[in-house]
Amino acid sequence: MDTKRLQCFVVLSFLTFALTPSSLLAQQQYGQLQIQVVDQTQAVMPGAPVELTSPALMRPITGTADGRGMFIATTLPPGLYTITVRATGFRAAVVENVTVEVGRTYSVEITSE
After folding, report:
1. 3-state secondary structure of 7
2. Measuring CA to CA, which residue among 92, 97, 98 is closest to residue 112?
């Protein structure tokens, strides 16, 4: 009788796991930022250095804009962010209070002058 109970438990456990929607198993805990860096003429700025700061981060996230002037930050904890671009020959461009929420992707354009 104990073997039948064990088999039943294993089958029920498997079915419970198998029938649980994947969206419940993989709960997102992060958001994303897609940052487009342009100059005052709206030309993209490949290679522009980008920095993200937030109380939600342990340290700033830094990187450079790609060939399309894009910097994409994934797996960002929810919170308020400051985006800073300090490109050579341009004044620092800062966008503050950018909200990131769980499961959402936000697009931000930042202009260096």
Report:
1. helix
2. 92
Structure-block tokens of residue 30: 């992060």
CB 38, CB 50: distance < 8 Å: no
Three-class secondary structure of residue 2 per DSSP: helix
Q: Residue 105: name the closest of 35, 47, 14, 34 by CA.
A: 34
Q: What is the pTM of this model?
A: 0.75
pLDDT digits (tens, 9 = 90+) for 48-102: 999 999 999 999 999 999 999 999 999 999 999 999 999 999 999 999 999 999 9
Give the separation between CA 8 and CA 32, rounded to whole angstroms.
43
Tokens coding 72: 């994409």
